[in-house]
Design brief:
The chain has about 240 residues and is an alpha+beta fold. It has a single domain, classed as Nucleic acid-binding proteins (OB fold (Dihydrolipoamide Acetyltransferase, E2P), Beta Barrel), CATH 2.40.50.140. The chain has 6 helices and 17 strands. The strands form 6 sheets. The chain has a 5-stranded antiparallel β-sheet with strand order 4-3-2-5-8. Strands 10-9-17 form a 3-stranded antiparallel β-sheet, with no helix packed on it. The chain starts with a helix and ends with a strand. About 30% of the residues are buried. Keywords: Aminoacyl-tRNA synthetase, Ligase, RNA-binding, tRNA-binding. This is Glutamyl-Q tRNA(Asp) synthetase. One of its GO terms (molecular function) is aminoacyl-tRNA ligase activity.
């Protein structure tokens, strides 16, 4: 009798255990709610795509996922000094401040001094219009001497050529953008390379080939606007090349 009862109890318990295991497996396979994913540092599927601002010298991201865009450091700086090059009628010598943290990250020697950059803009930009202006810079190019003076980056401009006529204008960075902001793009927000040396310079060449203004004058990469915390970077020239 006892054996019969035990057998009956065993047959009844098996379906219960199997059901419990199925429920447990289902709960582990269930998707994590968006709020929980955000709290854990993950990205929601509804996260906005496009250019965005990022403070500081580097960004979050797993190594090995770098792209040509993520290796580039597009940063907002402020022109604190500008003067004509003593040996050139085309070049300006600028000192551009990116804020202490970004200056140190870019200088690589612990100093926070502004970076010296040369630009061939005397023909197109008045000195007084250049001084104290916010500018967009590709800031991690390998330093090179121009007319005997080391230049540590490139101030980006919009340009249009029509025959022998050429127009060049500085980009309009929105007021309120923080000095030192790095502009990054969704999926390309990994740490930038400290210096784009030798073969790495091709990363910037690849990226800049797809940068220009659209019909609204918005500066875009692959059609996606460069966006700071204060808005989209623009230029007064539509459908122009950026360099």
């Amino acid at each position: 009798m006892a054996t019969h009862v035990e057998g009956r109890l065993l047959r009844l318990s098996i379906p219960y255990v199997e059901g419990w295991i199925a429920e447990l497996a289902a709960s582990h396979a269930a998707p994590v709610p968006a709020a929980a994913a955000a709290a854990a540092g993950g990205k929601s599927a509804d996260a906005p795509k496009g250019g965005k601002a990022q403070k500081g010298g580097t960004s979050s991201g797993d190594k090995g996922d770098e792209t040509a865009m993520s290796r580039c450091c597009f940063a907002v700086g402020k022109v604190v000094e500008v003067s004509p090059h003593p040996d050139s009628q085309k070049l300006y010598v600028e000192k551009i401040d990116f804020g202490d943290d970004m200056n140190r990250a870019l200088n690589g020697d612990g100093t926070s001094s502004p970076r010296v950059i040369l630009s061939g803009l005397q023909e197109f930009v008045k000195q007084e219009d250049f001084l104290n202006r916010l500018v967009l810079v590709i800031a991690n190019l390998e330093p090179r001497k121009i007319a005997g003076t080391p230049s540590n980056g490139m101030v980006l401009c919009a340009s249009i050529e029509a025959g022998e006529q050429r127009q060049v204008v500085l980009l309009d960075v929105p007021e309120g953008t923080a000095v030192g902001e790095r502009v990054v793009f969704e999926g390309h927000d990994h740490p930038y390379v400290p210096v784009l040396k030798k073969k790495l310079a091709k990363n910037f060449e690849e990226v800049i080939a797809e940068v220009g203004t659209n019909e609204k004058g918005e500066v875009c990469w692959k059609g996606i606007p460069f966006r700071t915390s204060a808005g989209v970077i623009k230029a007064s020239l539509n459908n122009a090349k950026i360099s």
